[in-house]
């Protein structure tokens, strides 16, 4: 009987100790309640003690969470509809406020955050054009929205919005065709403008090239004629000098060249007076 009582006491001690001790991990955040009333709004990581059946500890994941919103329609500055699919990264920074605002339910926190993201995207997209939302200022839009959410999220919900990102931006089916046609028209106009500028440049380049070609040909002809004239003058001077040195020999060599050219063709007929001076060197005579 005594042993039975000892075992029962030990068992009771183990149960009480098991319900009195609890551990909070580094990745967790926790609050302590006393009969449902919040008495400790931020329990540090480590080993802690509580009063069994009086205190209740609620533990939450302190790591970054993801809230994946459903796609929503928004109007741009030029009243064009866009379907935007977004998500947000958030984490608990004020565990007490988080518990009070959501009763410790992460799904409630996600719903509250999704509603604020929806309102924020409507305001941010409504202040920008379609081009700015899709490409030009997309990163700035997300940064502005994240900053705007963090101004109130920590105070109201006890969470920090780490980042907000857009996964996809689509045009609704009822406006997609008209937007694509307008984009094609704009691109065609831009292409035509580039072609016109290119044709204008090509005409200018061609005209300049032709003008330069005319100038180069004229200068080349001028130089060629000048060189040819100088050559003819030099040849004439050489002939004159040679003739002055020995006029008889010069006349003889010219006659021989003339005979060679005249009598080279067998089909030609030439009628000349045999006593002509043309044949004087053939007869052994000397020019008078």
Automatic annotation (TrEMBL):
Q: Where in the cell is it found?
A: Membrane
Asked if the Swiss-Prot or TrEMBL record annotates the protein with the keyword Membrane, the reply is: yes
| The entry's keywords | Hydrolase, Membrane, Protease, Transmembrane, Transmembrane helix
Q: Which domain of life is it from?
A: Bacteria
An example GO biological process term is: proteolysis
Give GO MF terms, alphabetically.
peptidase activity
The protein depicted here goes by the name: Protein HflC
Pfam families attached here? Band_7
Gene Ontology annotations for the cellular component aspect, listed alphabetically: membrane
Instruction: Explain the purpose of this protein.
Output: HflC and HflK could regulate a protease.
Family, similarity comment: Belongs to the band 7/mec-2 family. HflC subfamily.
| Keyword Hydrolase carried by entry | yes
Q: Where are the transmembrane segments?
A: 6-24
What is the recorded membrane topology of this protein?
Answer: Single-pass membrane protein
Q: Pinpoint the Band domain residues.
A: 19-183
Q: Where is the major localization of this protein? A: membrane
